[in-house]
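[stage:ingest] chain + small molecule (protoporphyrin IX containing FE)
[stage:ingest] validated
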Amino acid sequence: MALQDLLAAIEATPVAQAIAGSAFLFPVIEVVHVAAIVLVVGTIAMLDLRLLGVARRDQGVLDLSRETLMWTWACFVLALVTGSLMFASAATRYAGLWAFQGKIVLLALAGCNMLVFHAGAYRSVAAWNTQLPPPPGARIAGALSLTLWTGVVICGRWIGFL
Ligand code: HEM
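[stage:predict] done
[stage:export] tokens:
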């Protein structure tokens, strides 16, 4: 099945049609999307600033990540569900927008950065949990994460202007 056919099939689903046809559903879903991404990006930024050694310097990286990661993941799932519903309502249009494509690429890169960090620097976190500044691998991961997530938000907001 060609991509365009798949996107048209997604858009033709009863759920997508209901969202597209309602003056109420899309705004409510977008409000939940915004609330979810505020918590996703907010909790990630807190950890990134700690990894850079510029915030929460009195708290260990392990303690902070234990406090925040549960919220990050729960709200990420909520952002994924609400984003997918909005996407489905006009899949053929959104898929063709540079801002949407850019957002998905940046989301994937942010995920890769997190995987590289967890497979690398984070494995020895017990040794540098309260160290200031944290080791270069942690600081690079924090800086990259902040940059990529800022890009996701910029692209996400720009979608609405296209
Ligand atoms: C946690 C990751 C995500 C972040 C940080 C994010 C960020 C954003 C932001 C900032 C907006 C603009 C909201 C506004 O000001 O009204 C937005 C809208 C949107 N997002 Fe996301 N998003 C995420 C995940 C997703 C996913 C996974 C999808 C789709 C598969 C998606 C699809 C959309 C769509 C379709 C819009 C609506 C654009 C419009 O106004 O027409 N988002 N997102």
